[in-house]
Amino acid sequence: MKIEQIYTGCLAHAAYYIESNGEAAIFDPLREVDSYIKKAESDNAKIKFVFETHFHADFVSGHLDLQKKTGAEIVFGPNAKPDYPALIAKDGQVFKIGDYTIKAIHTPGHTMESTTYLLIDDKGKEHGIITGDTLFIGDVGRPDLAQHVVSDLSQEKLAGYLYDSLRNKIMPLSDDLIVYPNHGAGSACGKKMSKETTDTLGNQKKTNYALRADMTKDEFIDELLNGLTAPPKYFPQNVLLNIGGYESFDNVMKQAGKALVPEEFELKANSDACLILDTRNATAYAEAHVPNSINIGLSGSFAPWVGEMIPSLETPILLVTEEGTEEEAITRLSRVGYDNAQGYLKDGIQSWKEAGKEVARINRISAQKLKHEFENGTAIIDVRKKSEFDSEHIEGAINVPLSQINEHLESFPQEQKFIIHCAGGYRSMIAASILQQRGWTDLTDVTGGFKSIKETSIPRTEYVCPSTLL
């Protein structure tokens, strides 16, 4: 059976393309859709259906643009109520893609409309299942992401539905089926996802904690909900976009793709109250940047951190990028619903400096120099996740996870010097830029983060397993 997984690492997202006998289908497409269209054209195929496994929370789907550009029919599972025309499949309904058959299997739990698609080849053999966020490799979808957006059910109730879906709809299927999930490791849609992006269902029955045959519903609910962190702040807004519709990606690109000379850029920043987003790497940003900008580098988990740190999708944004990455930055913003970019600085920070404009800088030190600061009692703030901090950290360091920085600004000294670090320098530069934008001046970032700190003799507190204390 011809099926292609199209994996996007920065979102840990998998879309799927299948084609048979001149017809094609796309499952869970990303916002930019031209690559899917070109793929079908290269196969001399027409995209017949766009299948959605559920209303996604972590990205804006490309289903509407695909429908407009190709005439493909959008398909959701039972209980879906989009604000635009779509085919709402019945449980067990079948669809034909050339000589292939697609069977919709309603698997509520992650969300109430969540649906798994069973793939059947031209010989009638069941080949695999596209599971969306119902079943991952090593995990299952958390039941709290769309809670109170498309359903008033509690996360406990949704988890119970998911248990039933897995036991009654997924686990009875053949062990040799290939599992094609919507996400892999790094996604916030689960907590124990594997780096592998496909597996057989039989192996998942053996290795996935959520598919243990002797697991009761109460045990499943407890294990699934235990240890869940708060969902990223932008998730509910993305759900609403996927339900209600959004601006065409082509229009977003046209508006955001305006090259602005420094004078235009500065005027727009001041008159339109735009947020200046610098997408360069941490080193380049620290050396020189437009004052009052914040840094979220394209080289890391750009879209998720934009969604976490910029509260409103409506925020007007001006971009500072490495030359040639403007389109990538706009695309990755749009994937999570930030469609209000107003343009980018033509020729980047170099043009800004050549125009004689003021630049700002952020002080950085090596891990070796941090040792001296540690011995002098300088305050050290660790912006890694709590789980990372609890595992091991500098003695006496304060933990303020980056995702919580806006709620804990009082933790950062205003009248004395302090130093911040993360695991490798990406997140700490985001934190430093936000603090500098808000008026903090005497701060220093650690180049290389905790990875470099561990190579020094700076005293650290390591996690001690309670069993070793007995």
Task: Tell me the layout of helices and strands.
Elements: E1 3-8, E2 13-20, E3 23-27, H1 34-42, E4 46-51, H2 63-70, E5 73-76, E6 87-88, E7 94-97, E8 100-106, E9 115-120, E10 126-132, H3 155-170, E11 178-181, E12 199-200, H4 201-207, H5 217-225, H6 235-244, H7 249-256, E13 259-260, H8 262-271, E14 275-278, H9 282-287, E15 293-295, H10 302-309, E16 317-320, H11 326-335, E17 341-345, H12 348-354, E18 363-365, H13 367-375, E19 379-382, H14 386-391, E20 392-394, E21 398-399, E22 418-421, H15 426-437, E23 443-446, H16 449-453, E24 460-462
Parallel strand pairs: 3-4, 4-5, 5-6, 10-11, 13-17, 14-15, 14-16, 16-17, 18-23, 19-21, 19-22, 22-23
Antiparallel strand pairs: 1-2, 2-3, 7-8, 8-9, 9-10, 11-12, 20-24
